Automatic annotation (TrEMBL):
The lineage of its organism: Bacteria, Bacillati, Actinomycetota, Actinomycetes, Kitasatosporales. This is DNA starvation/stationary phase protection protein. Residues 13-149 form the Ferritin/DPS domain. GO terms for molecular function: ferric iron binding; oxidoreductase activity, acting on metal ions. It comes from Streptomyces dangxiongensis. Residues 154-174 are annotated as: Disordered. Signal peptide: none annotated. Belongs to the Dps family.
Length: 174
């Protein structure tokens, strides 16, 4: 692979690494701060997601290294380079957290889809890595949304534009 192409992939993957590291910390935050009648269901649903997201981050970091880059896994690098705000919900009802977490997953999935498209123009191996992660992230969002959907398929938080708004709409379901 040419150096310029590898450099594009490294830049693309660096932001994916930050997003995954941020997600696994956000998921643990939710795990620690969830309360209410759905506590145990959400508490136990989150930890397997944390484990898989950490594995995804490891795969991305190793791909960066294989391409000749440096996998910046420090909190300072994440905060400096991220393009999103920190998760904004503290101790809250399980459904409120899931409403906010749905928006987190939406943003993350949109970023992965864009990365898949760009990587596909350069390198099928990196594209394949991202597609596999996209599939898992979409499944995690489906698990979250199962708590937020009506029997008619209406998403209670579907028109929310912020984590706070989504959390408030989710809390109305409780």
């Amino acid at each position: 692979m040419e150096r310029e192409a590898a450099g594009r992939l490294i830049g693309l993957l660096r932001l994916r690494l930050h997003a995954l590291n941020d997600l696994h910390l956000t998921l643990k935050h939710v795990h620690w701060n969830v309360i209410g009648p759905h506590f145990i269901a959400v508490h136990e649903m989150i930890d397997p997601q944390v484990d898989q997201v950490r594995e995804m981050a490891d795969d991305v970091a190793e791909r960066i290294a294989a391409l000749g880059g440096i996998a910046q896994g420090t909190p300072g690098a994440l905060v400096k380079e991220r393009t999103w705000d920190d998760y904004s919900i503290g101790r809250a009802d399980a459904i409120a957290h899931l409403g906010a977490l749905d928006l987190v997953y939406t943003g993350l999935i949109e970023g992965v889809r864009a990365a898949v498209k760009e990587a596909g123009e350069i390198d099928p191996a990196t594209e394949d890595l991202l597609i596999g992660q996209l599939r898992d992230l979409e499944q995690f969002q489906w698990f979250v949304r199962a708590h937020l959907e009506s029997s008619r398929g209406t998403l209670a938080t579907g028109d929310a534009h912020s984590e706070e708004e989504a959390a408030a709409k989710g809390a109305e379901l409780s």
